[in-house]
Specification:
By secondary structure, the chain is of the alpha/beta class. The mean pLDDT is 87. Helices cover 40% and strands 24% of the residues. The protein is built from 11 helices and 13 strands. It folds into 2 domains: 90 residues, Nuclear Transport Factor 2, Chain: A; 208 residues, 3-Layer(aba) Sandwich (Rossmann fold), CATH 3.40.50.720. Strand 10, helix 7 and strand 11 form a beta-alpha-beta unit. The strands form 2 sheets. A 7-stranded parallel sheet has the order 9-8-7-10-11-12-13, with helices on both faces. The protein has a 6-stranded mixed sheet with strand order 2-1-6-5-4-3. Helix 5 crosses helix 11, helix 7 runs parallel beside helix 8 and helix 9 packs across helix 10.
Length: 357
């Protein structure tokens, strides 16, 4: 990897066997001469750098996931470098992109609530995989990478959902993937007694009816084309409701989960898959701010505040909250043809928080 970043082709060649092969961008190169020429060409073309992110062993091969930054659209992207080693040298190298792996190139997607947290991570993962994505939020972010693929809308209202559905039809010409991320609670503290009808309606509008309305508007096109994927982001609170102000939120998420299961039974025979993803505590920017405030109130550091939150959930066996990108990677897989036989089920991603299967 260091020779990649310095573009030292001689040092790079030392890593390969004399008859090594490299597969990249649809071409196969064999032998050191061809590999050196390939590296010189790509270095000049992309002016790139590589940052290793993770490494693992799979089926006798070494897989290094990297972040590739350079002079190309969509930079940075994630690539897997799959090495086959023999005698301390690289006998074969295959460079795989996430888009090629998932088969989402050209797919048309809608992600609600896609400017922060899990939603932003889902948008990034789908775009990295080659999909065209429209996203929504109630407020326009200060910086938009693709202004034409954003719509200011409140999907907790019928009017907002109608505007989003119209934008999807006009800008994408159809829809293949819907990911409902919008959700949350703004209810006051004070347990059930302070949750009046207004608070209950807000919880249901934000966590249930937005998904129901958009599905009702966009599913007919999926059914007509005989294919599509709908992913509802639920919550572990649909199984493990917490006290205080989140009672209405938990009930709304449970309703969303039940609705999602029923919908899957109706539309799966027509070619449309419906799946639920149920996160536990996810360490978004908002969650980081909450932990810092809890740490301040309890006169401790960030890790101490983190532990207080985890203890309030009954503990997280994994020892940490999930990352938004981890939830997004699961969503991208479930939206892809690699999950073609998965429908009607719920995938919990909570580090083991929920104590029962």
């Amino acid at each position: 990897m260091s020779s990649e970043n310095t573009h030292d082709t001689d040092a790079l060649a030392e890593c390969f066997a004399s008859d090594a092969t490299v597969k990249d961008e649809g071409q196969t190169l064999k032998g050191l001469k061809a590999i050196k020429a390939w590296r010189l060409e790509t270095a000049k073309k992309y002016q790139h750098t590589l940052e290793p992110v993770a490494a693992s062993a799979r089926g006798g091969k070494t897989v290094v996931s990297t972040k590739l930054t350079g002079n190309f659209p969509g930079s940075p992207v994630t690539l897997d470098f799959v090495f086959t080693l023999e005698g301390g040298k690289i006998a074969a190298l295959e460079i795989r992109s996430l888009s090629g792996y998932l088969g989402l190139e050209g797919k048309r997607a809608l992600v609600t609530g896609g400017t922060k947290g899990v939603g932003a991570a889902v948008v990034a993962a789908l775009r990295e995989a080659g999909a065209s994505v429209i996203t929504t939020a109630r407020l326009k972010p200060d910086k938009l990478v693709r202004a034409e693929q954003f719509l200011t809308a409140d999907v907790s209202s019928a009017e907002g959902c109608a505007a989003v559905a119209d934008a999807v039809r006009d800008r994408l010409g159809g829809i293949d993937i819907i990911v409902h991320v919008v959700g949350g609670s703004s209810a006051p503290a004070g347990e059930f007694a302070v949750l009046d009808d207004t608070e209950w309606h807000k919880a249901l509008d934000q966590n249930l009816f937005g998904a129901v309305r958009l599905d009702r508007a966009l599913l007919p096109a999926m059914i007509e084309q005989g294919s599509g994927v709908v992913i509802h982001i639920t919550s572990i609170q649909d199984q493990m409701p917490l006290p205080d102000a989140t009672i209405a939120y938990a009930a709304a998420k449970a309703a969303l989960s039940n609705y999602s299961k029923a919908l899957s039974k109706e539309v799966s025979p027509k070619g449309v898959r419906v799946v639920r993803v149920s996160p536990g505590w996810v360490e978004t920017d908002g969650a980081v701010g909450l932990v810092k405030e809890i740490a301040r109130q309890n006169i401790t550091d960030y890790e101490g505040g983190r532990k207080i939150v985890m203890d309030s959930l009954g503990g997280i066996p994994l020892g940490r909250p999930a990352k938004p990108s981890e939830v997004a990677d699961l969503v991208a897989f479930l939206a892809s043809p690699r999950a073609a036989s998965i429908t009607g089920t719920e995938y919990v991603i909570d580090g083991g928080t929920v104590p029962t299967a």
